């Protein structure tokens, strides 16, 4: 889906506009800090068009002088985005920094939209004509404080989405990525996997937005693509070493993946940072494998597997459906199991189940575990049907949605998992009322 980057010098109101554009989406996974609260990357929707928004100002480069930071932001926008929104401040007027940003942006062919913030009243709206001088076309007046002008801005953004975006992604291979902290062994894993497999194309520079993806054929003849997580191969630009940038690129890689391998380091154990991106992959409904790397380096005893497994299960409770694979990129241990597992999860994630079978499961479930009651009313389940794959999504029609308690929903999900074997994929269960 299209990526929109927001650029602008400090104090133009980027984060206010960012929050206005994406709204207050509340995360369903509460136990991963960072990504959602302090957002630089989020999903928005306008007139049925999904898009991703990046706030380049959120990528901190503290020890850099202002002009450099501004240049990096423009570079990030040029590298990452399909559409760039440059934000200026109507109350302060046109500044030197604005001109620097505009001149950098003018070097790209990507569509650029100029928005002038803090234009809260009609007089201020007159002043925005100064901003034509930036050479970016018509300035769009907006107000983050009042929320005005944003609809027009969004119309303009959506109208600028590249028309051929779909063909960029027209590729039926199974896409997966290695996601994790620096030094857990992501690039070693990519290299080790590619060494084992019949590689068709490696290092296809510029496949999508500077990404370096590699395609290979698995044992069973399936085309698979390892999605590049930025920072894996190209480490160079200053901003590539900042944590927020690498998190943001990880999120972009997750978006493009069918299956995400969350890589943990057996030596250093589980850190908070490991949970940020895992939570995002879960919310995005991706297939998930937990890959414990550097298993060779661990001093092991009889309980090592169990101990590490227990730790993973208690730290990543919401990922209890995800298989855990203990590997070594260094020795190649168990890496042969990786692509078959990815294929299996891909299949599970795209499995379609007949309604008649679903309703058999519902009947059995209700027979073994009676539906909850509240104030003399009992939950009645009429019917269940699958409405989507990738991830499998089910709608269950009931008499009163409020009677569907969290624990009962969990129970139904677990029944579906057991009967239809949805290992490695999240499943969504939506409750709908029917009179
Ligand atoms: P990335 O930052 O996640 O891409 O991590 P790298 O692939 O660059 O690996 C970081 C360090 O861990 C390097 O020194 C690797 O040689 C080492 N490393 C990676 N995988 C393994 C492994 O399975 N076993 C051991 N012992 N070391 C590993």
TrEMBL record:
EngA-type G domain span: 2-165, 174-350
Keyword DNA damage annotated: no
Molecular function via GO: GTP binding; ribosome binding
Residues involved in GTP 1 binding: 8-15, 55-59, 117-120
Keywords for this protein: GTP-binding, Nucleotide-binding, Repeat, Ribosome biogenesis
This protein's record includes keyword Cytoplasm: no
Residues annotated as signal peptide: none
Coiled coil residues, start to end: none
GO biological process terms, semicolon-separated: ribosome biogenesis
Stored InterPro entries: G_ENGA, GTP-bd, GTPase_Der, KH_dom-like, KH_dom-like_a/b, P-loop_NTPase, Small_GTP-bd
Residues engaged in binding GTP 2: 180-187, 228-232, 293-296
A family per Pfam: KH_dom-like
Function: GTPase that plays an essential role in the late steps of ribosome biogenesis.
The family this protein is said to belong to: Belongs to the TRAFAC class TrmE-Era-EngA-EngB-Septin-like GTPase superfamily. EngA (Der) GTPase family.
Complexes and interactors: Associates with the 50S ribosomal subunit.
Protein name per its UniProtKB record: GTPase Der
Organism: Eremococcus coleocola ACS-139-V-Col8
């Amino acid at each position: 889906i299209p990526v929109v980057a927001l650029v602008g010098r400090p104090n133009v109101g980027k984060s206010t506009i960012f929050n206005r554009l994406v709204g207050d989406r509340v995360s369903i996974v509460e136990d991963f800090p960072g990504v959602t609260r302090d957002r630089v990357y989020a999903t928005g929707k306008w007139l049925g068009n999904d898009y991703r928004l990046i706030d380049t100002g959120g990528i901190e480069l503290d020890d850099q002088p202002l002009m450099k930071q501004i240049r990096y932001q423009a570079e990030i926008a040029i590298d990452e985005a399909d559409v760039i929104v440059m934000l200026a401040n109507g109350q302060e007027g046109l500044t030197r920094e604005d001109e620097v940003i505009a001149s950098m942006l003018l070097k790209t062919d990507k569509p650029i939209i100029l928005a002038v913030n803090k234009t809260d009243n009609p007089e201020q709206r007159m002043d925005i004509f100064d901003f034509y001088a930036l050479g970016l076309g018509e300035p769009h007046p907006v107000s983050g404080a009042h929320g005005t002008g944003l609809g027009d801005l969004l119309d303009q953004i959506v109208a600028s989405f590249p028309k051929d975006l779909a063909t960029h992604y027209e590729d039926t291979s199974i896409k997966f990525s290695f996601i994790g902290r620096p030094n857990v062994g992501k690039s070693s894993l990519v290299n080790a996997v590619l060494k084992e497999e019949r590689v068709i194309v490696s290092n296809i520079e510029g496949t999508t937005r500077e990404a370096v993806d590699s395609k290979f054929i698995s044992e069973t003849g399936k085309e698979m693509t390892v999605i590049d997580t930025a920072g894996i191969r190209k480490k160079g630009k200053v901003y590539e070493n900042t944590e927020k940038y690498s998190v943001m690129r990880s999120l972009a890689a997750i978006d493009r993946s069918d299956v995400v391998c969350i890589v943990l380091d057996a030596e250093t154990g589980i850190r908070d940072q490991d949970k940020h991106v895992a939570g995002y992959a879960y919310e995005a409904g991706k297939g998930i494998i937990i890959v414990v790397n550097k298993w060779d380096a661990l001093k092991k005893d009889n309980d090592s597997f169990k101990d590490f497994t227990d730790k993973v299960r208690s730290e990543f409770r919401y990922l209890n459906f995800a298989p855990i694979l203990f590997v070594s990129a260094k020795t190649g241990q168990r890496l042969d199991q990786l692509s078959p597992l990815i294929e299996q999860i891909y299949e599970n994630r795209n499995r379609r189940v007949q309604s008649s079978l679903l309703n058999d499961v519902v009947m059995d479930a209700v027979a073994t575990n009676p539906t909850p009651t509240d104030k003399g009313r009992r939950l009645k389940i009429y019917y269940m049907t699958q409405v989507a794959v990738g991830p499998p999504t089910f709608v269950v029609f009931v008499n009163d949605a409020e009677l569907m308690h969290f624990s009962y929903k969990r129970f139904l999900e677990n029944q579906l998992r057991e009967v239809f074997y949805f290992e490695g994929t999240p499943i969504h269960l939506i409750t709908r009322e029917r009179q």
